[in-house]
UniProtKB/TrEMBL annotation:
Protein's pathway: Metabolic intermediate biosynthesis; chorismate biosynthesis; chorismate from D-erythrose 4-phosphate and phosphoenolpyruvate: step 4/7
Species: Crateriforma conspicua
Gene it is expressed from: aroE_2
Annotated protein name in UniProt: Shikimate dehydrogenase (NADP(+))
Protein family per UniProt: Belongs to the shikimate dehydrogenase family.
Molecular-function GO term, any one: shikimate 3-dehydrogenase (NADP+) activity
Binding site for NADP(+): 229, 252
Any single GO BP term: shikimate metabolic process
Pfam families in the cross-refs: SDH_C, Shikimate_dh_N
Length: 285
């Protein structure tokens, strides 16, 4: 890490708690690799105090923030400008300070989109099936519709009212047709058959329930690309079954890294040193 001086540019994490976060190690290694006079620190901010903390960011001239749970909505309500995609998602996870004007972004969906494009699975003009109607699904669906519109998106979830609410919200962001369905075999199998890309955003298959999956192996095929947002384990049962069927797979780790790359580039204006950031994450998994 470079010497910290009065001219050091500060970026930070706001969350509660923050002790488990890999973000300081990831971003400080990246700053160091490029010889940038930046430092990244973690702040445990009490819920309800995010507005006050952001006033401190303006006063002390912090360059940028990562924002994690439970502060993503409260932070959006207290910045000066919200990026249109983040506005559509309904929360932010990144802040950039330009001369005291705080702009909020959401890099989660862009991280997933970049991971798909890097894996030669660009969702533009494709049929996409998203499994889950939670926060990650919302971030990805809104980002796709606004920035790389698929031909059609199907959103599958276990609670119909929640699915239909998300369908309506995503539909309002662009012209891509959005439909909803349940997770039962009768509803889900036709959507799997129609999909070019499947994006799994639920916790199913996460450690310690590593044998679980929402998609039977027999439904998978060679021409599918499957992204699983779960990254513990890195190769979930869904991804292993997809590989066995000859399909293309994208690990959840790529979304986690992708959102960090986006944050780094928003703060510094320089390409993220991806290999350095990847090594930090992989060494801690």
């Amino acid at each position: 890490m470079p010497e910290i001086t009065p001219d050091t540019i500060v970026c930070a994490l706001f969350g509660h708690p923050v002790g488990h976060s890999m973000s300081p190690a990831i971003h400080n290694a990246a700053f160091d690799a490029l010889g940038l006079p930046y430092v990244y620190v973690a702040h445990d901010v009490t819920p309800g105090q995010v507005g006050e903390a952001l006033r401190g960011v303006r006063a002390m001239g912090y360059r940028g923030l990562s924002v994690t749970i439970p502060h993503k909505v409260e932070a959006m309500e207290n910045v000066d400008v919200v990026d249109p995609t983040a506005q559509g998602i309904g929360c932010i996870n990144t802040v950039v300070n330009n001369d005291g004007v705080l702009t909020g972004f959401n890099s989660d969906g862009r991280g997933a989109l970049n991971a798909l494009i890097d894996a030669d699975a660009d969702p533009q003009d494709k049929n996409v099936l998203i499994l889950s109607s939670g926060g990650a699904a919302r971030a990805i669906a809104v980002t796709l519709v606004r920035e790389n519109p698929p031909q059609r998106i199907a959103i599958a979830g276990k609670t119909d009212s929640r699915v239909q609410s998300l369908v309506a919200d995503v539909q309002s962001q662009g012209g891509t047709p959005i439909v909803g369905c349940g997770l039962n075999a009768e509803a889900l199998k036709p959507e799997v058959d129609a999909a070019d890309i499947i994006i799994h955003c639920s916790p199913v298959g996460m450690h310690p329930n590593e044998d679980a999956t929402l998609i039977p192996a027999a439904w998978l095929r060679r021409d599918l690309a499957v992204f699983d947002a779960v990254y513990n384990p890195r190769r979930t049962k869904l991804l292993a079954d997809t590989m066995a069927a000859g399909g293309r797979t994208i690990e959840g780790l790529e979304m986690f890294l992708g959102q960090a790359y986006v944050q780094f580039e928003l703060w510094t204006g320089k390409p993220a040193p991806r290999d350095v950031m990847r090594r930090v994450v992989e060494s801690r998994l």
